Amino acid sequence: MSKMERIEPLLTAAQIRNRVTELAAQITKDYQDKEILLLGTLKGAYVFIADLSREIDRPMEIDFLKVSSYGDSTSPISQVAFDQRPSTELSDKHVLLVEDIVDTGHTLAYLRRFLESQNPASLKVCALLDKPSRREAKLPESEYIGFQIPDKFVVGYGLDYGQRYRNMPYVGELIFEEVNKW
Ligand code: 5GP
Q1: Which of 47, 52, 53 is nearest to 166 (CA)?
Q2: Ligand 1 mean position to 113 CA, how many Å?
Q3: Which residue's C-alpha comes closest to atom 15 of ligand 1?
Q4: Which protein residue's CA is at the shortest distance from atom 12 of ligand 1?
Q5: Catalytic residue numbers?
Q6: Mind listing the pLDDT tens digit for each residue in 49-65?
Q7: Which residues line ligand 1 (CB under 6 A)?
Q8: 84 CA to middle of ligand 1, Å?
Q9: pLDDT score at 1
Q10: pLDDT class for 2, splitting at 50, 70, 90?
Q11: pLDDT digits over 130-164, tens only?
């Protein structure tokens, strides 16, 4: 027996594009008289922030941060630490954190605590995907959510499995199948 990986499509490229346009329109409206600091989480949010930032009609700075959660990649656990902090001063900025996916919520809880401690003028969160059924951390609801999805391990549109699949233009469930090898 060996294992094969298969992708079951969940969100099409067109669905994602339409939702990104809607989110960007809402963000443009909400930040009417403000300049934004868009802060993306590496690596997973790189595609989302590239598309979202180009549709938001406000002046903005863009920066990135990187955290790791320790555990295997299909079940993140609660140990979170910085690999790369933002390179921009955050105090008095309108920080909009751009996340790929909120799963247990431990990563986001850690990031919210860190970002609040930097005294931003405001802090909001925009997550492309949300798996509410997996939540463990106590968290305020994210201000902008692309899609709520069921408890499935997904890849594509920036999301990986073992660093692969990030360049898929759509989001799909990664399924492992046992196959007989003769
Ligand atoms: P949390 O701390 O909310 O449990 O997990 C957040 C991180 O776990 C995400 O930023 C992402 O890196 C990873 N993660 C959680 N669910 C998935 C998933 O379905 N697919 C992929 N590729 N990564 C996920």
Answers
A1: 47
A2: 18
A3: 103
A4: 44
A5: 103
A6: 999 999 999 999 999 99
A7: 44, 69, 76, 100-108, 153-155, 159-161
A8: 18
A9: 72
A10: confident
A11: 999 999 999 999 999 999 999 999 999 999 999 99
Contact 73/161 with Cβ under 8 angstroms?
Answer: yes
Closest protein CA for atom 5 of ligand 1: 103
103, 131, 152, 160, best to mutate for ligand 1 pocket (most atoms within 8 Å of CB): 103
Segment 66-74 mean pLDDT:
75
Atom of ligand 1 nearest to the CA of 160: 22
Sheet holding 94-102, edge to edge: 80-84, 60-69, 36-42, 94-102, 122-130, 144-148
For atom 17 of ligand 1, the residue with the nearest CA is: 153
* Residue 125: closest CA among 106, 109, 104, 148: 109
CA 34/CA 53 separation, integer angstroms? 15
The string of pLDDT tens digits covering residues 105-129 is 999 999 999 999 999 999 999 999 9
Q: Could you give the strand order of the β-sheet that contains 2-11, starting from the edge strand earlier in sequence?
A: 2-11, 171-179, 154-155
Q: How far, in Å, from the CA of 59 to the mean position of ligand 1?
A: 30
Check if the beta carbon of residue 123 is closer than 8 Å to that of residue 143: no
Could you tell me if 67 and 80 are in contact, meaning their C-beta atoms sit under 8 angstroms apart?
Answer: yes
Q: Is 100 in contact with 129 (CB distance < 8 Å)?
A: yes
d(CA 170, CA 166): 10
